[in-house]
User: What shape does this take?
Amino acid sequence: MTHQPSDLPVTIARAPSLGERLGDRAFRGLTLACALGVLLLLVGLVVVIGRQAQPAIERFGVAQLTSDTWSTNQDVYGLRPQIWGTLYSSVLAMLLASVLGVSAAILLAEHFLPAPIERLIKTTVELLAAIPSVVYGLWGFTVLIPLLDGPASWLHRNGASIPLFSTPPQGPGMLPAVLVLTIMVLPTITAIARDALAAVPERLREASLGLGATRWQTIRKVVLPTALTGIFGAIVLAFGRALGETMAVVILIGNKSTVTLSILSPATTLASFMATDFKEADSPLHIASIMVAALVLLLITLLVNIVGSLLVWRASRNLRGL
Amino acid sequence: MSTVTVDLRRRPFSARSIIDKLLTVFISLCSLIAIIPLIAVLGLLIYHGLTRLDWLALTETPPAPGLGGGGFGNAIAGTAWMVTLATLASVPLGIAIGIYLAEFAGSSRLADVVRFAVKVLTGVPSILAGIFIFGVVVTTTGKYSAIAGGLALAVLMLPTIVLTAEQALRQVPNDVREAAVGLGCTPTQVVWKVVLPAAVPAILTGVLLAVARSVGETAPLLFTALFSLDWPNPTRQEPTASLSVLIYNFTDTTDANQRSLAWTAALVLVGFVLLVNVISRWLAARFSPYKT
Assistant: This one.
């Protein structure tokens, strides 16, 4: 039997010293300051862009947003074509991407495939979301545009009376930009929509199948309605990404200031306008107009992202009772 | 007593069976259409990119139109330099905010506001980070520089790092915190000696993802670092080359050599991005000590 000397401490616990307590205060204050810095950053973003846009806002006011007139000689820069192009390209891309993306999400979430293949596709899709947009632009420019040449001419020849195909194709334009935007947002939609579907409790599926419903009756009448808010949130978040996408669009859309329904015509967006005109702008009013475009884009994307986040959040909250 | 007979045989040609099969075919086709272009991008990248993937391409400066040879060594160096600057600026700040949110703020109103602001920042288009830094840094110093480019990338990396750091810290179970507090640790000591070391692999995952994203960013650099045909010089404030802007500049050139360099640069860029992504996944899977 060993003998314990009684003067050894029985515990390693001790109260913090004054220095440790002061250090604690300082470090906690530091992290708080950093956290407040984020708020400052967000406010700064709006203020800095707004201040640079001020000359154009004072000169043109709201009218700039609804004007088509574009002339460096007269120093007038209407932004309606840019706003139209941004919304039009993103909405078209969302129409295509939501059908394809939600289909892929159903395929991945509803056990149509063996588990290893399902995992492989899921990982691939997530990795593809990481490919930089300038690479998609390069691909679209050298591969997709030549490939679309024939089909685009055919669409114009046979459907010139339809507004969508009313102008002769010129290579770069709305069509290649929309297709590449679609490809780029697909991983986002697929991943978030898959998560929304996978979050629907298995019990609901079992109950539906037990009542005699087929697999697709279950998906259509039970799974999809339950996951609807989350899927919608996925589409809205992807919409936010498409609105602000710059590099792929600036390479593919042709950068022409027009307002048209035709997808064969070149067009422009707020982001691609900023990227192209920034190099050439030398009049202060021109630069300020680029900043107005930035401000409009900021406000639109903030709005869309807040709505999307709220939807995804509400979807997860609503599932809690099931 | 009446008997009810129920027909339990499969009826593969009933309307609902056929609709089921049609819908399965439909989503399979849609998924195929969705995945083919993505695979095609990768395939063509390897096909076009390999033609000029040689030592010259990785070490030389860009060639003039009409000349052969040359490379994008200066662009690799410029990208590496700016991403390093961005990482140095955003990682300490992001982790500090993550610590505040996960450890110190509790469920205060301020924490909710900060978290919301960070989420909003994740959705800000990258081009606007460039415009912001242009307004703050470039118009003040009067010079385009690698520092401005790095700061623009830091703005984009910050939200990812904050969100993953907060989540990583929250995964550490409360028992260890309570044990440390019981021994007399201050909250700061709990964070530094107990929680942070346990959360390092998960935080690193987030940092790697943020790096992978910022390496490919192009739009913010158009307003901050521009481009240069020379090697970057960290001691001077001057326009700096980057891989992504090189790809953009060489996309619509008519010079065949420059165009194949654009593909090779894209291959190098995507190769790096995918490698970092795979490493971060491996890290996340390998070191998640507190998974239940």
Observations:
- The longest helix of chain B spans residues 15-49.
